[in-house]
Specification:
The protein is about 40% helix and about 20% strand. The protein is an alpha+beta fold. Strands 1, 2, 3, 4, 5, 6, 7, 8 and 9 form a nine-stranded antiparallel β-sheet that branches. The protein has a single domain, classed as oxygen-dependent coproporphyrinogen oxidase (3-Layer(aba) Sandwich). A hairpin with an 8-residue loop joins strand 6 and strand 7. The protein is globular. The mean pLDDT is about 90. Helix 3 (about 130-135) runs antiparallel to helix 6 and helix 8 packs across helix 9. About 30% of the residues are buried.
């Protein structure tokens, strides 16, 4: 397997194992969503898989050797009315063609379920434990900030790590990924105390989450969906995007 696959997949395996998630075949006949591309007509280029249980976990992998792309992402979604943030790891390797220089990128975050600018107790409980981890990760030699729009930054968290990297830096990011994931798992296991929610109820949390996810995965906000559509076709890209954008429960 590849370096980019490993960085993402270790979190998938850990979350599935610790929370006892069950992989689901869903309703579609190709529910594992084998992904194909005109660039490689004789072989799949990836797939989408998902698991259900205490959280819903979605994994999407795309590997297209002709253009040197090896991309893996996972989103672990807490229930829509839960105050527990969502967790995501996105790892990408490029330049895999013969003679090309390898390049890497990653995205790591806990996505808040309450407005962090209005709920200090929630911020301190769910996000401040990540501050030192984030600061240390940003000192890794070989990292440089990725180029996201202000809109993308606005709908994630201020603790988001999103960088380009050389291979050494990319490998060293594992420590931060593990720490973010394990902190998130502790929130799933222990819950978020009601006294940090400032009276915000499940219906309000659910409404904000639906709105937030619709923006995070809006194709006009994140240009990656246009590139995915070019690789696997617009219709299949929309299936993937909709799965991520629409809370199942």
């Amino acid at each position: 397997m590849s370096v980019s696959f490993d960085l993402c997949w270790r979190s998938v395996q850990t979350i599935v194992d610790r929370l006892g998630l069950v992989e689901t075949a869903g309703e579609a006949p190709d529910a594992l969503h084998v992904l194909t591309s005109p660039m490689m007509p004789d072989a799949p280029v990836g797939r989408m898989r998902w698991w259900i249980g205490a959280v819903d976990l979605v994994y999407i992998g795309l590997s297209v050797p002709p253009i040197g792309l090896d991309s893996h992402m996972m989103f672990a979604f807490s229930p829509v009315a839960s105050a527990v943030p969502h967790f995501t790891v996105d790892s990408v390797a490029g330049g895999g063609q013969p003679g090309a220089q390898a390049a890497f990128a990653f995205h790591l975050d806990l996505i808040p379920k309450l407005d962090l600018g209005a709920h200090l107790g929630y911020l301190r409980h769910c996000f401040e434990p990540l501050t030192a981890i984030r600061a240390e990760a940003q000192t890794i030699a070989g990292l440089e900030p990725a180029h996201l729009s202000p809109t993308q930054y606005a709908v994630m968290s201020a603790w988001m790590l999103v960088h380009r990297a050389d291979e050494s830096a990319f490998r060293n990011v594992e420590t931060a990924v593990t720490a973010y994931r394990d902190h998130w798992l502790s929130l799933v296991t222990n819950g978020v105390p009601s006294d940090v929610l400032d009276g915000v109820g499940p219906d309000q949390i659910a409404d904000r989450d639906r709105r937030n996810r619709a923006i995070v995965f809006d194709a006009t906000v994140d240009p990656v969906w246009g590139r995915v559509g070019q690789l696997i076709g617009t219709e299949r890209a929309e299936v993937l995007r909709s799965k991520l954008a629409t809370p199942a429960r």
